């Protein structure tokens, strides 16, 4: 990194934090804006939470800022606390029937796998899992793997934009277009995408897209959104029926009881809760612009890929993808078979490194996230630590492995 930005973050200086991908890290000025909103809430909670005087206008400002950033209308995007919630809103609203098929991949986030299982059990739909070939080196191979699993019963295409465990950037654009041509709903898990990859929601064209603002956008924890194309908003029901619900239709142009689209009001106006993380989203966008964060991200991507190459050379293990299909700032690095928990704990205890280490479908992985507060010296320490720990003939090696 040419410029280290660690002074802008609140992270423990004693910890080498290489796990931005899990929960993000909020810059100091954004966190201060978040606290400013919380203080306003506590100073005059009635005014703040009153839909007419405070809440609805403040929510609208944040929604409009995010919609402008992501190329859509503020009427198509509603705030939720995390991407899992947004995807549940959509998936639990779909009018599926017994025999309908939900097509997904073997790379999806475990919480959403459970959501799909819940929806399938409740509706009688069937989950079909397409296996993505590894290493992922071809968009055609990815498309073929998914499309070969489409049948006349396929009603939903559920894909990650950036996968969690394997840190792959799926080339989803053509599949979304293909799904629309075939009358299949496309539902995209964008938990890791906002602020990580450029995002134009209307151009992408997914029927449903939900993403987190608290990961790579660096907003406070609890800021996320769900985006639904206008023609499907009437189909969407909130998980909680509260003040925003209306018995009227939610067709495009119909306003809800608090002035936003009916879809937005139903999702956002759900009684007493702290909206401060969402209200700090404009501050996160401003912080990114002030520090030319796409340039920062490009430097982080180079550093992450260089480090992953060093780990490959160290252990002689193949990458899970070619660079263009790896998430820009997050790389799932294969490591020798080991006790993942023991390796994680040793990295933190002996080297002060916080990084996820886990087993995924027979692969042992250390997932590296590189953000503007990380340095090349930290990457050197990681490579050294992995080499020292996984060279040992000790319990860190998986039982029965050399």
Automatic annotation (TrEMBL):
Tell me where the signal peptide lies. Answer: none
Classification via SUPFAM superfamilies: PLP-dependent transferases
Q: What is this protein called?
A: Aminotransferase class V-fold PLP-dependent enzyme
Transport keyword on record: no
What InterPro entries does the entry give? Aminotrans_V_dom, PyrdxlP-dep_Trfase, PyrdxlP-dep_Trfase_major, PyrdxlP-dep_Trfase_small
| GO terms of molecular function | transaminase activity
- Organism whose genome encodes this protein: Kaistia nematophila
- Taking every annotated instance into account, which residue ranges of this chain make up the domain Aminotransferase class V? 59-377
Does the keyword field hold Transferase? Answer: yes
**Key words of the record:** Aminotransferase, Pyridoxal phosphate, Transferase
């Amino acid at each position: 990194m040419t410029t280290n930005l660690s002074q802008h973050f609140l992270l423990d200086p004693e910890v080498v934090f290489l796990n931005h991908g899990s929960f993000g890290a909020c810059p100091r000025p954004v966190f201060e804006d978040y606290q400013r909103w919380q203080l306003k809430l506590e100073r005059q909670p009635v005014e703040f939470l009153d839909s007419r005087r405070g809440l609805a206008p403040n929510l609208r400002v944040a929604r409009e800022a995010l919609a402008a950033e992501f190329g859509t209308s503020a009427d198509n995007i509603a705030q939720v606390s995390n991407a899992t919630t947004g995807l549940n809103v959509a998936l639990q609203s779909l009018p599926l029937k017994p025999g309908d098929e939900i097509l997904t991949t073997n790379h999806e986030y475990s919480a959403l796998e459970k959501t799909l299982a819940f929806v399938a059990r409740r509706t009688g739909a069937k989950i079909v899992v397409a296996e993505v070939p590894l290493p992922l080196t071809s968009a055609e191979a990815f498309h073929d793997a998914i499309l070969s699993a489409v049948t006349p019963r396929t009603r939903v295409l559920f894909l990650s934009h950036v996968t969690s465990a394997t840190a792959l950037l799926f080339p989803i654009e053509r599949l979304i277009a293909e799904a629309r041509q075939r009358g299949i709903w496309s539902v995209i898990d964008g938990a890791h995408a906002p602020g990580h990859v450029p995002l134009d929601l209307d151009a992408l064209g997914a029927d449903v897209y939900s993403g987190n603002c608290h990961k790579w956008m660096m907003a406070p924890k609890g800021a996320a959104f769900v985006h639904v194309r206008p023609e499907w908003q009437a189909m969407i029901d909130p998980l909680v029926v509260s003040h925003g619900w209306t018995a009227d239709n939610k067709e495009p142009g119909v306003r809800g009881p608090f002035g936003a689209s009916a879809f937005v009001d139903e999702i956002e106006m759900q009684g007493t809760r702290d909206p401060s993380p969402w209200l700090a989203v404009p501050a996160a966008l401003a912080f990114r612009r002030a520090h030319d964060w796409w340039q920062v991200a490009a430097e982080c991507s180079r550093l992450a890929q260089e480090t992953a190459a060093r780990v490959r050379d160290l252990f002689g293990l193949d990458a899970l993808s070619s660079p263009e299909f790896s998430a820009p700032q997050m790389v799932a690095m294969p490591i020798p078979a080991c006790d993942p928990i023991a390796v994680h704990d040793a990295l933190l205890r002996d080297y002060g490194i916080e990084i996820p280490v886990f087993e995924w479908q027979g692969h042992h992985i250390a997932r590296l996230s590189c953000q503007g507060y990380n340095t090349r010296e930290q990457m050197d320490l990681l490579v050294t630590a992995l080499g020292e720990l996984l060279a040992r003939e000790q319990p860190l090696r998986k039982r029965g492995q050399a």
